[in-house]
């Protein structure tokens, strides 16, 4: 099996790094948070914690 030159290892590393970064960015920006729903749930949870004696 022939050995790879250091330049080939470096280009392979760059290729995988770019692929990883692109995959993470696509994954991050494709997720959409519903801020209004999460705020309403927090309000409901906080109301349940208020005790009236």
Automatic annotation (TrEMBL):
<keyword id="KW-0472">Membrane</keyword>
<dbReference type="InterPro" id="IPR001421">
    <property type="entry name" value="ATP8_metazoa"/>
</dbReference>
<keyword id="KW-0406">Ion transport</keyword>
<protein>
    <recommendedName>
        <fullName>ATP synthase complex subunit 8</fullName>
    </recommendedName>
</protein>
<keyword id="KW-0813">Transport</keyword>
<dbReference type="GO" id="GO:0015986">
    <property type="term" value="P:proton motive force-driven ATP synthesis"/>
</dbReference>
<keyword id="KW-1133">Transmembrane helix</keyword>
<keyword id="KW-0812">Transmembrane</keyword>
<dbReference type="GO" id="GO:0031966">
    <property type="term" value="C:mitochondrial membrane"/>
</dbReference>
<keyword id="KW-0375">Hydrogen ion transport</keyword>
<dbReference type="GO" id="GO:0015078">
    <property type="term" value="F:proton transmembrane transporter activity"/>
</dbReference>
<dbReference type="Pfam" id="PF00895">
    <property type="entry name" value="ATP-synt_8"/>
</dbReference>
<keyword id="KW-0496">Mitochondrion</keyword>
<comment type="subunit">
    <text>F-type ATPases have 2 components, CF(1) - the catalytic core - and CF(0) - the membrane proton channel.</text>
</comment>
<keyword id="KW-0138">CF(0)</keyword>
<dbReference type="GO" id="GO:0045259">
    <property type="term" value="C:proton-transporting ATP synthase complex"/>
</dbReference>
<comment type="similarity">
    <text>Belongs to the ATPase protein 8 family.</text>
</comment>
